[in-house]
Amino acid sequence: MKTSVVQKIETYFVITVITVLIWLYAESKNATKDQTTINVQFVAPSGQELMIDPAEPTPVLVTFSSATSKVAEVKKLGSIKLLVPEDTSEPVVLRERLAESPLGELAVIIETDPPTIRVRAEPFETRMLPIKVLPGDIQLRELATADPTDAAVKVPASLAPQLDGIKLEAHLADAIDDLTKFDDNRPHTISVRLDLPEPFQDKPVRIEPAAVSVTFTVSRLTKTTSVPLVPIYVRLPVIESNNYEVIPENDQRVLPEDLELSGPPELIEKINNKEILITAELRLDAVELDSGITSKELWINKPPGVAIDSEIPRLNFTIRKSENGSSP
Q: Exposure of 32 by Cβ count < 10 A (0-12 exposed, 13-18 middle, 19+ buried)?
């Protein structure tokens, strides 16, 4: 009786194994041919830092054959990382390398597009380079300084000799969006990005630190002057000039105080030399004349680019209708 039970168990086991083998064989014969795009990226071995070209993943169209049940799994891979080859003198045959990857465990790779890719890899070399601050169009009182004064530049070993005598550049003007935020004649410190000169900007380099602290002092970009005895003129609409008379209080015909101006040195010099005359005007329109206002801020005639640093005065006056003119 015992022998009979054992025989039955053995028979069931053999039948189960045969059934599984038959299923696996049938599944292998039920292969599907399909395509998928795999982003292939070459990476350095662990512990190594290499300049690798191409640095970004390369889309590769893979034609493969796999069991129907594995197709979805293949298409989920999306991207695969491959170690850079030890010998980069020959192009990499993608079908062979991908067959050694997780993709090869799921499918038979029939072909790839592109079929090959050329990979270049070389170690980085570090050079310490001095930093030069370039002010651009900013007028400085004295030379700007960078802290630290030099930085490390990592470049592929083949490019390292080209860095001899090169300085890193900190472009101050590019880091400032509004110069008026910085007071004149006192030091300011901001962070400025470091760059290599233009011939190197498209090279695979790394700068550490990427930015430095730059201290600079903006020089005074303007001159100032005081204009005494600025004359006051009354300007009325032409059509109203015969209808109204404007009488300044105390018969005031000049500003009571000197007018403080600032601006480009060349304009201030012309103002001082009386080549440019500064005048004040009381400008009244028809509505103001008819309403009989008695005070208004004066308009200062000055060239563009010149600023008024003192308070713009008001003029008190009386408006009188002319007896000889007709009112509107």
A: middle
